[in-house]
Structure formats: C-alpha cells, structure tokens
Design the sequence.
C-alpha cells in the first residue's frame, strides 16, 4: 500500500476539486492518505509568486476555470462572496482537530465545503461559529482555533512542505515524489499503478539545462 500526503489550503478551489476527485481517480488502487493543511500564501511568497489572484486577468480566468471545472466534473463549487481571503482561521480550526499536523478526511471535507459550497462569506462570524460546532467532536482535548498548538502545527506543516519542495496546492507526495495540481491526479495514478515511465522519465524530464540567466 502506498501512502500519499495531500497538502492543501482551504482557500484553494483546486484543492477542493482535487479533494472530491481523488477517490474516483484512484479507484481500485491500494493507498492511504493523510491531509496536511499548509499556508499557501507562505509557500507562494517563498518563490516570489503572487498567485493567480495577484494578476487581475489571471484571477478572472481562474475563477471562470474552476467554476467550469466544477460544472464539468459534477463537483458542486460556488465562489465565496470574497476571494482570496485570509485562511488562517480555517487552517487553525482544522488543526485544532489534530495531534500531529494531519487531519482526517471528515475534517478536511467539512472545512472545504464551508468555503466552496453555497457561495457564502467564508469568514462570516456566525458561519465560523457553526463550523466550530460541527467540528467540536473532532477537537483535541483542550484545543480550539485560538490555542497555541494549531498555530505551531500550521507553521511546522508549512515549513516541512516547503522543505519537501511544495510550491503550491493541492500537492501530493508519495515515495518522495511530488505531484502538483488537480491535473496531476492522472499522473499520480499512473505512478501508483507502476507505469515504467517513472523509472527514467521522472528524473530525465527535470534535468533540462536552464536557458535563462540565474
């Protein structure tokens, strides 16, 4: 059985789509998944990347694209009233349910649906209270979103992800290999199935010499 680490930030619509698509894309394979919330903004900042929302025409395209993908894939997706937003309250709420930085599929899905279904304000105070109540049975003893431990877990998750080469979300790590994005899921499946291309093609594809000044 292969083990997959799924790095996600709830602010990412592609993370929501990948979360929903993962079981179907990998149907029939033997694997386990751990979900690791990370702060996408910190990963982007490390590489000087403004993200799609930082480039106005790309922002418009991204929102149209993910909305169409939801429609085409049959995954309910409605843009929240404001986006991007600061995901820290949601990340910390999820990690208040964790002892080691990973969250279960119920917790990850509950927070993702909070953002990506219904077209509501993700950080509305009343909705955040309702989310906290829904996750209350999952909380670690003595923890909530304001506790020190969720903050420390988020920092550790993000730093560890960056050290592993994660530059965006969703990202999937298995056997030290990173697969990025919703459209990386078929490639992930091929690897798990033992596609022989990975014996040589994985390293060879990334060994091309840089053609621009460093």
Sequence:
């Amino acid at each position: 059985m292969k083990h997959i680490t799924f790095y996600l930030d709830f602010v990412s619509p592609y993370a929501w789509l990948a979360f929903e698509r993962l079981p179907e894309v990998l149907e029939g394979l033997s694997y386990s998944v751990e979900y690791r919330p990370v702060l996408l903004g910190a990963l982007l900042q490390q590489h000087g990347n403004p993200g799609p929302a930082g480039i106005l025409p790309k922002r418009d395209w991204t929102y149209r694209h993910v909305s169409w993908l939801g429609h085409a894939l049959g995954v309910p997706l409605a843009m929240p009233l404001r986006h991007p937003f600061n995901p820290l309250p949601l990340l910390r709420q999820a990690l208040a349910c964790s002892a080691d930085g990973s969250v279960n599929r119920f917790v990850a899905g509950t927070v993702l649906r909070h953002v990506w279904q219904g077209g509501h304000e993700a950080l509305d105070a009343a909705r955040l209270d309702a989310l906290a109540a829904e996750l209350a049975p999952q909380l670690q003893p003595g923890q909530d979103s304001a506790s020190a431990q969720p903050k420390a877990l988020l920092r550790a998750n993000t730093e560890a992800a960056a050290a592993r080469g994660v530059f965006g979300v969703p990202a999937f790590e298995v056997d030290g290999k990173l697969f990025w994005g919703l459209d990386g899921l078929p490639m992930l499946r091929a690897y798990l199935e033992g596609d022989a291309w990975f014996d040589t093609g994985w390293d060879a594809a990334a060994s091309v010499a840089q053609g621009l000044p460093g």
